Amino acid sequence: MVPIQNLYYLLCYAWNRLPEPGEWQHVAEQEFHRPLELLTQLLLTGTRRLLQKGLPLGYAEREEELAELRGRVLLTPTIRRDLLRRGRAVCAYDELGPNTPLNRLLAGTLDALGRTRRLPAALRQQVRQVRSRFPEDVQPAPLTRAELRAVRRLRLPGPESFLLNVCTLIYRTALPDTDTEGRTRFHDFRRDEALMAGIFERFVRNFYRLEQRRYRVLSETISWQAEADRTEDLALLPSMITDTSLESAERKIILDTKYYNVAFKPHHDRQRLISPHLYQLFAYLQNQAAQTAVPLEGILLYPAATHEADLRYVLGGFPVRVVTLDLNQPWPAISAALLALVQ
């Protein structure tokens, strides 16, 4: 399981946001016992910075009974209340203020964290202190899938997008607590293999985007080198989308990440590589070869598993490596190992 301190690095790279100067050290000096404590600290740090600069403002629709017309007149409630005879009307108008979807989501998430017993008392107190700094007209929104989707549609800039990602991960770790009204339980998302696979994939891709300049880094769709009796049948072929492609003028690497507990599986009392992983990478290489003029090679990258591995093959004329990355070692060693992998 990934140590919580290293989980911080994985999340920062996965969400494409390197910390502010000194933030690495600040987090490294703290001791976290659960991933929720780390996520809460990230949320507090980012929210404090947002409050220092001033919460972002936005236009929100407001309904109010007024003596002067403003915005749109809402006829149904106006007539129902018989306001016209009194020279009044219910109006809906846009008002600029801090009651934005993101600010409401942050307030709601802080409210949920302030109630959970999964956090130490001192950290819950920090949560409540930060929450108390929000203006009274920010109405907290519940931490739900619908609210998260609504905020994500706004395409927020970097720091605000990072906070949205933190809230999303907190939501994905939340479980309803039927025993305690108003509180939420949280599970250790490091045990969620599908969730961690997505984090690991984005971490590796963004690490190479940010930490080296030799290669252009992308995730790309590879076209099948295929023919069919009917053209429309080609659309039924599955998509081939690489996790990470690294391309320079002299070399191209297709790097596929696999977040599995083991890189091998037993077969007749012997350990074997996981065949579908090799087949997938080999299919990528075969179909990509006709579309690139530079030497092509492949890498299967696993987090450190039961067996450490650094295996080298030539499959169908393509160099292929199967490598494990130890995520339990200090971060500088992880960084050095990733850079050495593509040198």
TrEMBL record:
<dbReference type="InterPro" id="IPR019292">
    <property type="entry name" value="McrC"/>
</dbReference>
<dbReference type="GO" id="GO:0009307">
    <property type="term" value="P:DNA restriction-modification system"/>
</dbReference>
<protein>
    <recommendedName>
        <fullName>5-methylcytosine-specific restriction endonuclease system specificity protein McrC</fullName>
    </recommendedName>
</protein>
<dbReference type="InterPro" id="IPR014407">
    <property type="entry name" value="McrC_bac"/>
</dbReference>
<dbReference type="Pfam" id="PF10117">
    <property type="entry name" value="McrBC"/>
</dbReference>
